[in-house]
Each structure stands twice: as structure tokens, then as C-alpha cells.
Amino acid sequence: MRYILLLAYVLVMLSDAAGQQARSITISLGELTCKFRSDFRPDAEKAFALMSKLYSSEEFQDSLRRMTFPDNSCNSCGSDKINSGSAVLEQLFLKTNETLDLVIKKGGGALGKTSPQANYTTAFYKNIRSDMCKLPFFVGLAVNLSHEYMHHICFCHPKDPIDTSWRKPFNGNHCDDEKYDPINYRTDIAYRVGWIAYDILLRWYKEGKIID
User: Any residues with CB less than 8 A from the CB of 163 and at least 6 apart, and which?
Assistant: First the structure.
């Protein structure tokens, strides 16, 4: 009987482990619109592929799964209340193949913008380059797209983030300083996903897992 119970326990553990295996998603670039440069498509395609790789990684999914948030669902979507990382992942993987158009503009008031359920997103080139200037543009774009895609799948900011604090001590080097909104960091799903994406992709780049 002891061996039977041990075998049952092992099978349950294996079943749980299998249930936590990383799911896969592919988000592809559709139309690209950029009026000030004509050579962005290779970078944009690499950014979409990198976002898909990030979302499909165990590291990203595990990071999000253990978190809890207030409900950030956009009112216009009429979706159910979602306040756990696991529920966010369920929403993310409702569609495992998506195509999104991209508009690249020189600059704006943020890194990008996306309306809930819109079939396109906007990225602001100068803002991304300034904010993440130690990273190749396509990596910074992938970080921003990972955040913006959460708006596409109906997560809205409870309030506009105001980056007033430092995650790392201020050292006067813009690209090494990380200014953030500590309240939204804990309570805003799309905002936190952007930081998860930044942390993982920055480390992958430093470790040579992303080829420039």
C-alpha cells in the first residue's frame, strides 16, 4: 500500500508539473507604417519574434503566475474581472496566433499607445531609444510591445503611471537608472508586464541570448 500511495503521489506531482509547462504564442507583424524612415521592418519583425519568445518562456509565465493585482480589465471590453497572474495568462493565451499592425512615430508622450482590442499599436522611436539606449532598438521595441499588447487584450491602466521613484540607486547615468511608479508597479497589470519584459530581455541581452 505504501508503494501504491508513493506512486500516486509521484503521478500527481508529474501531472502538476506538466500542467505548468510553458504555453506558446506567436504574434506577427502585419502592416508597418513609418513616415520618417523606410528601413524599420527588419527591426520590427525581430521585435515581434522576441516578444513571442518572451511570452512563450517559462520564465515570463512563472514571473506573472505568482502575482495578484486589482482588476485592470478595460470597461469597454466587457470582460470578467481578472486579478491574478494565472487569469492574466489565460487571457493572454486565448489566441495563440495573432497579427498586429505597427505604426512607428518619431516621438510622443510615452513609449507607445494602444487602444483596447485595436488591431494596431503605435511606438514612439525617440522615446524608446532614449529610455533604453543601452539596448538595440528592436529589443527596446520588444519590451514596449510586450506592454502594449496587454492593452490590446483589454487591460487598462487604473491610473496613468507617474515615474517618480528609483528601483536602483540614482547614479546620474540615464540608461542605467530605472525610474518607476511604485504604486502602479504593484497594481497595474500592463505596467508590471512591461517591467517583467524589460528585466528578462535586458538579462537575455547581457547573457548573449539575443543576437544584435
Answer: 179, 180, 181
Beta-strand relationship, 97-105 and 112-113: unpaired
- pTM for the whole thing? 0.89
How do residues 17-67 score in pLDDT, each as one tens digit? 444 689 999 999 999 999 999 999 999 999 999 999 999 999 999 999 999
Check residue 78 and report its DSSP letter: T
Retrieve residue 128's grid coordinates.
524608446
Q: Is 51 helix (H, G, I), strand (E, B) or coil?
A: helix
The residues with which 23 forms a beta bridge, in sequence order, are none
Helix 137-152 vs helix 41-55: crossing angle, to nearest 10: 60
Q: What residues pair up with 179 in beta bridges, in sequence order?
A: 166
